[in-house]
Amino acid sequence: MSWDVIVMRFPEGFDGDFDKIPDDWEPEELFYLEYFLEEIKKIFPDINTEDETWLVLNAAAYSIEFNIGDDDPINSIMLHVRGGDEAIQAIKKICDRFECQALDTTKGELIDFNEETNEGFTLWRAYRDKVLKNER
Predict the structure, then answer these.
(1) Which of 8, 13, 32, 123 has its CA 20 to 30 A from that of 110?
(2) What are the two backbone dihedrals, phi and then psi, of residue 15, each rounded to the nearest 5 degrees?
């Protein structure tokens, strides 16, 4: 179970409403895999890149799995996030480095990194905690 975030370059003015995206819109290429692997290791030197289609970042307070897929060049990445609020800053680093945005799939909105907390991540953790409590 994870909080899922899509990282890509969305059309200018995109607010999370996919119905407003023109039918003929195609996502912009972000980068080639080789470049991404080089750059992501600069940001997160301990990232596991053994499987180049599914990277794993295990930090002290959070973990993020990068579902990249087989396409090259890459136009989007699905992040599977777990843990504490520090994960938001990790996502921000990715977006800043690659000049892209992050869509919170819980809320269906772009993540605003200027907010102190992220409501979608908070809602996901509350859901996770409820499910785990019910399983005990």
Answers:
(1) 32
(2) -120, 10
Residue 136 confidence class, pLDDT cut points 50, 70, 90: low
- Alpha helices for the chain (secondary structure H): 33-43, 86-98, 119-135
- Give domain limits for the chain: 3-135
**Among 35, 30, 64, which residue's Cα sits nearest to residue 48?**
64
Query: Measured between alpha carbons, how far is 54 from 65 in angstroms, rounded to an integer?
Result: 7
* Whether the bond into 73 is cis, omega within 30 of 0: yes
Say if CB 116 and CB 99 are below 8 A apart: no
Helices (H) and strands (E) in the chain, counts: 3, 6
- The structural architecture, per CATH, of the domain 3-135 is 2-Layer Sandwich (3.30)
pTM of the model: 0.86
